[in-house]
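FORM 12-B: Structure-to-Sequence Request
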């Protein structure tokens, strides 16, 4: 079984909150059921691929402050 996802034509974007000196990730909105995530400093490197539902839950938790540390 080949689980390879062709990301060669994917469009990528960085969060508007990623202006912190290069510590950025990019995501691609081009896939219905998964969200590829990559390091913006290595655009030809590997990408992690998350189920859309899991990525949505993560973003919702971030917006709610679930990962804020003192």
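FORM 12-B RESPONSE
SEQUENCE OUT:
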């Amino acid at each position: 079984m080949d689980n390879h996802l062709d990301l060669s034509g994917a469009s990528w974007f960085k969060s508007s909150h990623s202006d912190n000196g290069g510590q950025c990730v990019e995501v691609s909105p081009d896939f219905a059921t998964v969200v590829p995530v990559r390091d913006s400093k290595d655009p030809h490197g590997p990408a992690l691929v998350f189920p859309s539902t899991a990525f949505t839950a993560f973003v919702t938790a971030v917006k709610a402050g679930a990962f804020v540390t003192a």
